[in-house]
Design a protein that fits this description.
There is one protein chain. The chain has one domain. By secondary structure, the protein is mainly alpha-helical. Helices cover about 75% and strands about 0% of the residues. The relative contact order is 0.21.
Length: about 90
């Protein structure tokens, strides 16, 4: 059983997921749903457009997808760790 490739795949998956999370979080931070700036009490904010809603939904969905990727990659590493433990127990 090749454990090193399993560990490598898990680590690469986590790194990729974290990079994706960073990009998606940046997208969420850059959303500009209120184009008039901070609410100063004088004017009602303009309604959001469907593109704004689509962008926000896409960004939040990306956050969830990348979170799942990191979780799945962590499971790969846990499985590789269990395999190493099993092999050491068998060898001992």
């Amino acid at each position: 059983m090749a454990v090193n490739p399993m560990l490598g795949a898990g680590v690469n998956g986590i790194n990729s997921g974290l990079n994706g999370l960073k990009r998606a979080a940046q997208d969420v931070a850059e959303l500009n749903l209120d184009q008039d700036g901070p609410d100063n009490g004088n004017a009602a904010p303009e309604p959001t457009t469907s593109r704004d809603v689509d962008d926000s939904v896409s960004a939040v969905t990306d956050l969830a997808v990348y979170q799942r990727q990191v979780q799945a990659s962590a499971k790969v590493i846990e499985t590789a760790d269990a395999a190493v433990g099993f092999l050491l127990d068998v060898h001992a």
